[in-house]
Amino acid sequence: MNFNKLDKDTKKQLSLDLNQKAIQVGGKFNFLQMLEDIRSIKNPLLKVTNSLHYESGKISWNKTIFEDKLVLLFKTMKEIEINGNMFEEDLSDYKKKKIINMLKTLKPIIFEVIPKDKNLEGFSFKIIDENNEISIIFKIMFFYNIGFAKEILNYKG
Fold this sequence. Notes:
Largest sheet: 4 strands, antiparallel
Strand content: 5-15%
Helix content: 40-55%
């Protein structure tokens, strides 16, 4: 996703949301450090323990994510980035059903970011948001370039 191609209102809302989450884990530095720590772990979402530790806290989730679902999720995210739609025009009914089942499987998963500092509240998020779209915070946490998060956090619109 290209931050510069977003409209002003979207940039502003995204900046407010992400800065709020950064405050909940101790500020921009801690948030960006958390992203760096996540990137240093090989396949963090496939951990059997359903959790991962970063320098100043822990991220846990309530359900195991299997590799086939994660691969399909990544392909679907790429399709949305390219075409703005998760269903290609020439997609077979079988593949559409696989995507729908993947979304149903991942929708109940909730991630909790828990800072070590007990004075900080942390935050939680889902893979699939209330609009049945792949959550932007999920993409930022696990897939997008850290530079994208920096642009959002530093936006002064």
